[in-house]
Amino acid sequence: MTTPISSIALVTFGSFIGSFSAIGFKAGSKRLEKNLPSLLRNWPLAAGVAGYLFSSVFFIAGLKSGELSILFPMVSTGYIWTMLWSRLFFREPFTRGKFLGLTLILIGCVLLGLGTRQPG
Amino acid sequence: MKEKLPISLMTTEPVILNKVPVTASTVEQKRRSLLMIVAFTVLAAAAQVLMKFGTIHLKLHPSISGLLTDYPLIGGMLLYGVGAALMVVALRHGELSVLYPLISLSYVWVAILSVVVFGEVMNPYKIGGICTIMAGVAVLGMGAHK
């Protein structure tokens, strides 16, 4: 089974959209209260959910063909964007630990992808 | 007279009272957020496998009724929704740039499930990938309490 480039492109684009929804989730989670009206007025959360659903359309379209274990790691490219948005929107500092952790995760995802291509 | 400290201050972290805003997350809250994200990754991996089953079903029955009776796909999406709700609550405490990449732990579960459920072959690359992701998650997780 091979994985078409179009599937990889769809999933990668989906993860870019998904990185924006993370901003909505974080901003929305700070406004969480245990009552329905406040939940309905939580527009950052709503925007996050909308973005999440929108990104899942690309994931489903991409996952239709190709191997799960090569396509799924493509989602990890979204973490690079999320780290950038975290600094821009929430003033979270870049730290050595974050770079190291994220780098390891990205290397791990590439290895997983390579593992899928090995015959046997 | 010995005063009893509130739970939020009974930590190994040095806390300077007047410098901590009222809304600051406690170490315990951050730890709970970390655990909730890990729980989310398990749900997400299970959802992903269900959705893959769903697309196989959809290929066999490519119609509206085929989509409406695609229970694995519907179930997978519902499970994803439940997981997402858990993730939103988890993101409340701690840094987004630390918590969000932890979602990559779901790839580890997916890689293992792909071998078990779909009969994909395990090899040194996959094992290396799984171990490297887990190391990355550990590095991020250790920094999460700060």
Topology overview:
The complex is a heterodimer of chains A (120) and B (146).
Chain A (H helix, E strand, L loop, with lengths): L4 H26 L5 H5 L2 H21 L4 H4 L5 H14 L5 H22 L3
Helix pairs in contact in A: 1-3, 1-5
Chain B lengths: L26 H34 L3 H5 L2 H20 L5 H4 L5 H13 L6 H20 L3
Helix pairs in contact in B: 1-3, 1-5, 5-6
Structure, explained:
- The complex is a heterodimer of chains A (120) and B (146).
- Chain A has 120 residues and is mainly α.
- In chain A, 77% of the residues lie in helices and 0% in strands.
- Chain A is flat, with a radius of gyration of 17 Å.
- The two termini of chain A are 12 Å apart.
- Chain B has one domain (30-143).
- Chain B has helices at residues 27-60, 64-68, 71-90, 96-99, 105-117, 124-143.
- Chain B is mainly alpha-helical and 146 residues long.
- At the A-B interface, helix 1, helix 3, helix 5 and helix 6 of A face helix 1, helix 3, helix 4, helix 5 and helix 6 of B.
- Strand composition percent of chain B: under 5%
Could you give the count of β-strands of chain B?
0
Helix-residue proportion of chain B: 55-70%
Give the structural class of chain B: mainly alpha
Give the uncertain stretches of chain A in residue-range form: none
> Mean of the pLDDT scores of chain B?
82
As a percent range, the share of helical residues of chain A equals over 70%
Oligomer: heterodimer
β content of chain A, as a range? under 5%
Largest sheet of chain A: none
- Count of DSSP H/I helices of chain B: 6
Question: Overall mean pLDDT score of chain A?
Answer: 86
In the predicted model, the low-confidence regions of chain B spanning at least 5 consecutive residues are: 8-22
**How far do the termini of chain B sit from each other?**
31 Å
Count of structural domains of chain B: 1
Helix segment count of chain A? 6
Order of H and E elements of chain A? HHHHHH
Gyration radius of chain A, in Å = 17 Å
| Radius of gyration based on Cα positions of chain B | 20 Å
User: Kindly, what is the distance between the CA atoms of the first and last residues of chain A, rounded to a whole number of angstroms?
Assistant: 12 Å
Shape assignment of chain B: flat
